[in-house]
């Protein structure tokens, strides 16, 4: 039985997020578990998530985070420990307020670099990247 779709294509937050995530070299979007995921081979972002036994954040981005940055991000109430993927180095950022899209792009940049092959990182460093990072 497939997962129910948990997003709307006309969601303006998702549309803006797509513009950022799909600007990374060879990035693709795949619907998995009812939510859009962004991949550069492996997954580097997911739209929407929640806390196990807690609130659901439909307008959020889940991303991989470097351990050195994790503690600082966890102190900020906009970030949350997402169900299922949190134990594997992921955090979530609530986008329901007024997101700082440059911050979102930077978080996705770090996540992308953690999963992408060297040839894609070289393209990223050569300038093939989201406009928010310029």
How would you describe what is shown here?
This protein is α+β, with helices and mostly antiparallel strands and 134 residues long. 31% of the residues lie in helices and 27% in strands. The protein is built from 4 helices and 6 strands; from the N terminus they run H-E-E-E-E-H-E-E-H-H. It has helices at residues 12-21, 67-74, 101-115, 118-125, and strands at residues 28-32, 35-40, 42-50, 56-64, 79-80, 90-94. A 6-stranded antiparallel sheet has the order 1-2-3-4-6-5. A hairpin with a 2-residue loop joins strand 1 and strand 2. The protein is globular and about 40 Å long. The model has no long low-confidence stretch (mean pLDDT 96).
Beta-strand residue percentage: 25-35%
Strand order of the largest sheet: 1-2-3-4-6-5
Q: What number is the mean pLDDT?
A: 96
SSE string, helix = H, strand = E?
HEEEEHEEHH
Count the DSSP helices.
4
Biggest sheet, open or closed, and with what strands and sense?
6 strands, antiparallel
- End-to-end Cα distance: 43 Å
Instruction: Indicate the percent of residues in helices.
Output: 25-40%
Radius of gyration: 14 Å
Poorly predicted residue ranges: none
* Shape descriptor: globular
Number of strands: 6
Helical/strand content category: alpha+beta
Quick structural summary:
The chain is 31% helix and 27% strand.
Descriptive terms for the model:
134 residues, six-stranded antiparallel beta sheet, 31% helix
């Amino acid at each position: 039985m497939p997962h129910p779709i948990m997003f709307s294509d006309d969601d303006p937050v998702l549309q803006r997020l797509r513009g950022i995530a799909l600007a990374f070299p060879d990035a693709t979007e795949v619907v998995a578990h009812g939510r859009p995921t962004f991949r550069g081979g492996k997954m580097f972002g997911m739209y929407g998530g929640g806390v196990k036994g807690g609130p659901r954040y439909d307008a959020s981005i889940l991303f991989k985070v470097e351990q050195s940055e994790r503690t600082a991000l966890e102190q900020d109430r906009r970030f949350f420990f997402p169900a299922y993927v949190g134990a594997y180095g992921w955090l979530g950022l609530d986008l329901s307020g007024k997101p700082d899209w440059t911050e979102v792009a930077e978080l996705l940049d770090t996540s992308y670099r953690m999963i992408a092959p060297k040839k894609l990182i070289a393209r990223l460093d050569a300038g093939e990247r989201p406009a928010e990072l310029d």
